[in-house]
């Protein structure tokens, strides 16, 4: 049966229910015909824009992203802020923040200064740049490797699953922080002239992101394997196989779109966890190194000034929390938008529909001599369905 036929049949059955009109949807559920005429992109966009948490997270992350990459400049492009993260200026207001809510004022150093006169706003924006760059690199690499390993092991099973899952087990037992510390020490030996040391010394943030991405895919691989093990036994996969579809088409066109919810949520969680991992590594002194900076390095450098100059600690910490929360909210909204198995229940709509239908007593007729749902006295819901 085609999809339009299913929609018409369900609409006819719904209209035959007592107390419901031809256009009244089931309480709390979206109307069946609401998505008729919309493309897949329009449906995804409509669902995402209807998620208030995702919109708030997107706005917050967009503001942070724009401020971080335009204020102090990036990749040689100058920014609009007059200080860089290494400029030293005379202390203003004893290094305290000059910004105030009332009366509204921005001041010379809105986030304050450290003990030697560096502008904390410039350092925080530079740290946000580095942390966001590491986050995207880790999310991209971990997502690609995790999806590939999970899809191959869950779809083909057999020796492919055994080899890939044993590799996953080996990597998952390695402490990430310890391995990162060892690799950072190896990268720091610039006198040896190895290619790894040369690349790490010239591209410290990129090298750190690539390395963490290569060991952060194991959780996603195990989740995707479970999803593929479940979905490969579904009827639509059997139908695609009978129609002559190749394994690659079945994986990417039929199974992967149904697992996109798990994929998006796990990738966003991995990206937010990457911020915390970079913070921990920089705090331990094996992440981003001076004269460059990151949010974790700023917290590490200013932990001793927490009681005397708390703003040096709070501003980087607030940005870490905001970035992590906004990424998680965006991932939650994307999961609801892309996953075709998500069913949206609206309690307000359910209450309004129940209130509207409870106003008419069962068995009563309308002024036109009809019962609710377009039935006449003496007819039944079954007759209405048969007549359709």
How would you characterize this protein structure?
There is one protein chain. Residues 1-35, 360-374 and 376-388 have low confidence and may be disordered. 30% of the residues are buried. The chain has helices at 3-15, 40-49, 52-71, 120-156, 158-172, 176-187, 195-202, 204-214, 218-231, 235-242, 247-255, 260-284, 295-301, 311-338, 347-358, 381-387. The protein is mostly helical and 388 residues long. It contains 16 helices and no strands. The longest helix is centred in the middle third of the chain and has 37 residues, at 120-156. It has one domain (52-338): Orthogonal Bundle (MetI-like fold), CATH 1.10.3720.10.
Structural class by sheet pairing and helices: mainly alpha
* End-to-end distance: 17 Å
Helix content: 55-70%
Low-confidence stretches: 1-35, 360-374, 376-388
CATH class (first level) name: Mainly Alpha
Gist?
The protein is an all-alpha fold and 388 residues long. The chain has helices at 3-15, 40-49, 52-71, 120-156, 158-172, 176-187, 195-202, 204-214, 218-231, 235-242, 247-255, 260-284, 295-301, 311-338, 347-358, 381-387.
